[in-house]
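Design request, tokens follow.
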């Protein structure tokens, strides 16, 4: 999903605890990264991660093999082994999301899924891939679902199902529809809140025909600005149980306030999270306890050395051991409090971990032998 994660089934954590690092521990945890379950054999990067209610973990990206098995840009981890989802895709997967019925949605630059024509977006029902109408005419970069089962997609596309949508669209299970006149440039992040509002972030400065810079809210009928927005690109969005919205990206100001690469919107005003990051924030997620996790290309968070990943407890930033040796693009949490991280890194906490790892609050671990390319997104379902 886009950068927003939901709760994962508890038994997945039981199966994976020996090999995946957890994300949902308190921000005061200072555990270690471990190599017991790091992915060592994925041949490229991971851009997206999500889980289903049965505890399966799904990864999407630019990789084509896992542990020597051909998977073609998307794979499933059942707690023991990685397996392909049909014959996979013919190009990169950038976004993943699940719905309450257990369906998996994938978005990216592919035009086939499981051998079926599926232009940049497809659904996996556990057995086969199907298209969502005629799909999009360009890249899908972000996906999220709402409580009513609607799927939202954002990216660089201008049509969905043959309808003009301008970089953002809704799928109701039958057809694609536009959200007003959409955006004038790319959408990189999507999330929803408990009230059913949809938030979009990206590189746009017009939403629904109104001047709205980089971040906007859709209430079901119109787009609205969040204060004066940000002064730079928004790459990541997530919400917490209290209805706060968190945004991460390349900006340094939100609502006229200095907010280096990360900020909080409480429904009325923007505020900073400490002194922020020294470089871009690419992904955000919140666990069941309310701890916020951020991943990206930064080295410090709140002045603390964090190396690509950090946690915010509402007052301070802290590191997760020594972090990663390269950028983090994807994060997800599960019901047991584990955190999953994916990206471009090959070590976590100093231990080999090719593009994906799990933090259990004490140690980082790998999933099988890993990916052969980048992981860019992670998410869990309800």
């Amino acid at each position: 999903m886009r950068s927003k994660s939901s709760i994962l089934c508890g038994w997945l954590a039981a199966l994976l605890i020996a090999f995946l690092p957890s994300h949902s521990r308190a921000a005061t945890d200072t555990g270690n990264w471990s190599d017991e379950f790091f992915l060592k054999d994925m041949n490229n990067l991971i851009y997206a991660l999500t889980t289903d209610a049965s505890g399966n973990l799904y990864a999407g990206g630019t990789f084509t093999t896992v542990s020597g098995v051909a998977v073609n840009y998307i794979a499933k981890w059942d707690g023991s082994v990685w397996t392909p989802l049909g014959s996979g895709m013919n190009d990169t997967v950038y976004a993943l999301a699940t719905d309450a019925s257990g369906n998996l949605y994938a978005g990216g630059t592919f035009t086939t899924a499981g051998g079926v024509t599926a232009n940049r977006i497809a659904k996996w029902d556990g057995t086969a891939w199907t298209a969502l109408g005629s799909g999009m005419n360009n890249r899908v970069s972000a996906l999220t679902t709402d409580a009513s089962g609607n799927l939202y997609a954002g990216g660089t596309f201008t049509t969905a199902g043959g309808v003009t949508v301008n970089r953002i669209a809704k799928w109701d299970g039958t057809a694609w529809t536009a959200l007003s006149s959409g955006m004038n440039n790319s959408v990189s992040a999507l999330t929803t809140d408990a009230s059913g509002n949809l938030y979009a972030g990206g590189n746009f400065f017009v939403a629904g025909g109104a001047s709205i810079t980089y971040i906007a809210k859709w209430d079901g009928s119109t787009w609205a600005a969040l204060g004066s927005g940000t002064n730079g690109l928004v790459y990541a969005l997530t919400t917490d149980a209290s209805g706060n919205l968190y945004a991460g990206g390349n900006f340094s100001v939100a609502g006229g306030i200095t907010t280096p690469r990360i900020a909080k919107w409480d429904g009325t005003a923007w505020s900073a999270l400490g002194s922020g990051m020294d470089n871009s924030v690419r992904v955000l997620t919140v666990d069941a306890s309310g701890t916020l996790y951020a991943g990206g290309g930064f080295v410090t968070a709140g002045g603390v050395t964090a190396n690509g990943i950090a946690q915010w407890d509402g007052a301070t930033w802290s590191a997760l051991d020594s972090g990663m040796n390269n950028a983090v693009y994807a994060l997800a949490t599960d019901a047991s409090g584990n955190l999953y991280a994916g990206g471009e890194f090959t070590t976590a906490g100093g231990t080999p971990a090719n593009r994906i790892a799990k933090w259990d609050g004490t140690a980082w671990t790998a999933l099988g032998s890993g990916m052969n390319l980048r992981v860019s997104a992670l998410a869990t379902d309800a």
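Comment from the thread starter after seeing the answer: thanks! DSSP finds one helix and 43 strands in the chain.
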